[in-house]
Amino acid sequence: MSSMLVCLDFDGTLAELHPDPYAVRIHPGAERAIRRLAAAPDTEVVILTGRHIAGIRQILPADLPVTVVGSHGAEPGPTLSAADRAYLDNIEAQLAPLATEGAYVEVKPFQRVLHVAQVRDPAVAQAILAAANAIDTGGRPKTQGHNVVEFSAVSITKGSFLAEYKRAFDVTVFAGDDDTDEHAIAVLGPRDIGIKVGAKPSIATVRLDDVDAMAEFLAQLADERQA
């Protein structure tokens, strides 16, 4: 049997999106399928999330047999330099005045993230995002996702992480729902499977409607790997 890496985004892929990121739980069907996949021969399951590891650990079952990689592949990762830390402090200071009307700033080890999902007025949310997008990053990475703008001190992406990690496997399956997941889909090879969950534009070859469909796909994959 060929070795397989099953690499999965979390929010919008294994769990529904929610204004409160800590109110979500992994889809029960997806959890069952992941446990079966992890027990299958020559199969590893990785959750590759934009959340920081401490945050995702708060909502994942403690005994879920997966490798957890946070901050879009940066965590666990390199030690930040003094310049990196100063950059993040500066970004945090510029984002602080925008944390109004329900918007808030999330502090992650390698990033600072402005969230607007809890802003009730869509026009206000868009204005806050526009102001955040206008912040000068000096060439450092800035990414917009579902109701967020993220500023990173490092250039590591889901794609750069996956390109290296997948080398140990014959086949890689990657699934995600957001723009940041396109970086990972872009590094997949001809034998690999890229899955887009939801309706956003994608270069993925497989499209699944929602989290329920993703859970069903994982269950079918577990059947095949355990056959």
From TrEMBL:
It comes from Corynebacterium ureicelerivorans. One of its GO terms (biological process) is trehalose biosynthetic process. PANTHER family: TREHALOSE 6-PHOSPHATE PHOSPHATASE. The keyword Electron transport does not apply. It holds the Pfam family Trehalose_PPase. GO terms for molecular function: trehalose-phosphatase activity. Keywords: Hydrolase. Signal peptide: none annotated. This is Trehalose-phosphate phosphatase. The keyword Hydrolase applies. Removes the phosphate from trehalose 6-phosphate to produce free trehalose.
